[in-house]
Design brief:
single chain, four-stranded antiparallel β-sheet, Butyryl-Coa Dehydrogenase, subunit A, domain 1, Butyryl-CoA Dehydrogenase, subunit A, domain 2, about 400 residues, Butyryl-CoA Dehydrogenase, subunit A, domain 3, alpha+beta, about 15% strand
Length: about 400
């Protein structure tokens, strides 16, 4: 499937996803019908290796799809973007791990939660891990999970790794009662003494070098991109999609609202007009930066180069900054829309809640991303940062 065909297929599902947006909030997870629609059309395979039925599209295509979904349902976009990146990451693992997941069914999906909060012990042939990992979006729809952990077996060089576990090795704990992204099903993962063989682990150091075991079998340039760039941008794309949804809802409010206190139609209010213009410009600028940055690292990979650290630090800064601009733009719309948008079921208050929830993800910590970029601009070595 080519990029245009892929995005057309996404567009065909938008009315159904939009119609289920309130259902997602009530269920506190994405409706099974939405996941079934995406899976049956192959749309979770944008970045999946062609060897396992995937399309190996450039990541920007996935981001455009996440943005479009975010315009109608923030929770669906959030889960789609995250789960859509995971086939790409699995393509970085040794082929034995890829075969375990996809040999029988190449539509199987993987969830994730990367915070290194569990216990990791090196044992013969692999690792034993235990613990409780929070914030795994969309886990209910997946048969595997990526878990973050630190290998302490070499005290002189600690190794942050991703561990891949099958569904019978973990339990999903229903904890997601949230004000925003309510439908994302971002629950906890509980593991009690699971064995993870070596081939089902991946070092973050390898992904930072853009040289992972999976490169031996998956030769497309997209598998030579930094993990931090690919994953972080997916979250930014979803947030910007949510902001675009808020802008569309704001246009509807301005078209319909009459300001009784001032005796004028809201659309004629110059202050509202200014806010509308500002919000559109913020979101447009952030998206242009997103496409520029992911395009730069993708083109470097196509040339056979490892994307340089300054470009990667710029991407991380602009990604987090873009989420902040999505929040600011949505706030501009929300604060001048009147009391009607506070009612349950109004899309603008849902977009407002969702974009603020998206901002809370650790990867969207603007100050940390800005410090990283500032250090890189000053020529200070940032290669030790796991998120560059």
């Amino acid at each position: 499937m080519k990029a245009g065909e892929y995005l057309d297929a996404i567009e065909a599902l938008i009315p159904r996803i939009e119609a289920r947006a309130n259902d997602a909030e009530t269920l506190r997870r994405i409706p099974d019908e939405t996941i079934d629609d995406l899976r049956s059309a192959g749309l979770m395979k944008a970045l999946q290796p062609a060897r396992y039925g995937g399309f190996e599209l450039e990541p920007v295509v996935l981001y455009r799809a996440a943005r479009r979904i975010g315009e109608v349902c923030g929770s669906s976009a959030w889960v789609f973007g995250i789960l859509g990146v995971h086939p790409w990451q699995l393509g970085l693992f040794p082929d034995a791990a890829q075969a375990e997941v996809w040999s029988d069914d190449d539509s199987v999906m993987v969830a994730s939660t990367y915070a290194p909060v569990g216990s990791v012990t090196k044992v013969e042939g692999g690792y034993e891990i235990s613990g409780r990992w929070p914030y795994s979006s969309g886990a209910d729809h997946c048969d595997w999970v990526f878990l973050g952990g630190i290998d302490f077996s070499n005290p002189e060089q600690l190794d942050m790794r991703t561990f891949l576990l099958p569904r019978n090795d973990y339990e999903i704990i229903d904890t997601w009662h949230a004000v925003g992204l309510r439908g994302s099903g971002t629950n906890d993962i509980l593991v009690e003494g699971a064995f993870v063989p070596d081939h089902r682990t991946l070092s973050f150091a390898d992904t930072a070098r853009c040289d992972s075991p999976g490169n031996a079998v998956n030769t497309s340039p997209i598998y030579r991109l930094p993990f931090a760039s690919v994953f972080a941008t997916a979250l930014s794309a979803s947030a910007l999609g949510i902001a675009r949804g808020a802008l569309a809802a704001y246009l509807d409010v301005l078209s319909e609202r009459f300001k009784i206190a001032y005796g004028e139609a809201a659309r004629e209010d110059p202050h509202s007009q200014v806010k509308l213009a500002q919000a559109h410009s913020m979101v447009d600028a952030a998206w242009l930066q997103l496409e520029r940055n992911i395009g730069d690292v993708t083109e470097a990979a196509k040339r056979g180069e490892v994307p340089d650290l300054l470009t990667r630090a710029r991407l991380r800064h602009d990604q987090a900054y873009g989420v902040s601009r999505a929040v600011e733009a949505t706030d501009l719309c929300f604060e001048s829309s009147g009391g009607g948008v506070l009612r349950d079921g109004h899309p603008l208050q849902r977009f407002w809640r969702d974009v603020h929830a998206a901002r809370q993800h650790a990867i969207n910590d603007y100050e940390r991303a800005a410090t990283l970029y500032g250090r890189a601009l000053l020529g200070i070595d940032v290669s030790g940062d796991p998120m560059v």
